[in-house]
Design goal:
About 40% of the residues lie in helices and about 15% in strands. By secondary structure, it is α/β, with parallel strands linked by helices. The chain is globular. The two termini are about 40 Å apart.
Length: about 450
Amino acid sequence: MISGGRENHGVHLLRIATTWKGNYMNIAPKWLLGLGIAAPMALVLSGCAPAAEEAPAPASSQDTSSAVEGIDPNIEATLVIWYYDTSAGLADIDAQVARFNELYPNVTFELEDSPGDQFHGAKLPATAVSQEGPDIIWYNPQFTKSLAEAGVLAPLDDEWASFADAGQFSNSFLHSVDGSIYGLNSYVNLNAMWYNQDLLDELGLSVPKTHTELEAALAAATAAGKNGFQFAGTTGVPGEWNSRTFFSAYGVGDYADYDNPNALSMFEAMKSWIDQGWLNRGNLTLDQGDGVNVFLEGDTLFYLGGNWQLAASEEAATFNWGVAPMPAGPNGNGAVYLGGQAEAVGAFSTNKALAWEFLAQTWMNKEHAVYRLGLGSIPARADALEGDVSDKVKAYSAAAQIGIPLPSDTEGTLAVGTLWSGLMQGQLTPEQAFEQSKAVAARQ
């Protein structure tokens, strides 16, 4: 259905509406809401009240940016934006359109949304055939490599090099292929380690920063009759998402590196944790949506949790707790995946300079970063976390600085989730899990 002619802050929008069915890649649709496919609720300020389900659009401001030199503020043009997240994306995009029209009042927009599986698997790749496509793309960054290699995304190296606020962003928020930047994250969603501060105090322990310290804490908790670490040992996306930090800690890179012998060492360590009672095998069958309740009961020392779970947990917890980046392991830093949407310029845009200007003045702007913070996401801009922001949110931001992009191999994701669950449930030995891990690497 097409609705046109609606005036929004001086802009005439043409919106081509489709129904978001929540079935992105047909993998754990409800759980994927936490990865940024719908805006999460979260704890933002040190006051800790849950955010509203839909935060208000950022207030207009005239003093944070100005039209770029070289683009006429009175330019008359139409920018086409394609996106795939009807529920959260539309509210965000509408707010950015309004902001942009404060600088460029004669620019109009055409917004078009699609279900995620169609968007990334068919609609965007088809533009490489037709040689026609949108000016601006709001997409899942795990598809950056395939879309860039198909010629769907425009390289942004020159634009980023001249972007005045580039220093506010860590490289972990940039999506590059063969050395060129094709996409940018203005916000992320990710995992970090939650800890029960009351139990740490009771055991005379501090928050671990290495796996050696983590294992000592798990042993102490188990000896005291407490649960050690709760995380998802399930199949599919939830298990694969949770397993990433352990692969990272043992120095295993992307899927092409899953034949690294360090993966076998990690599998052996996980089996040892289970054998020593540091992990409750029964609870490992829970995904994050249910696993958080185990932590909130108060007898579990650590939990691998997402920032989207903060607000509700802050209200529910009856003990003192905190958040820290995952500890470094014997061969790596414990990096986690970064979820959330990314922004890009379409390769077939007829007005790439204006399209980039939209990204720079809206999604990459500090005002937008604060807006996303209000929705519970972790903003990419460092200066958005200045001021009265909770230590829990700051811990997620610290973890994001070394985060890694999601893989684009859906079959590999499912395979890793399957071997992870098999290992956690004792259905696979470490050696058998490693054989399956090597098969994932062989597919790359």
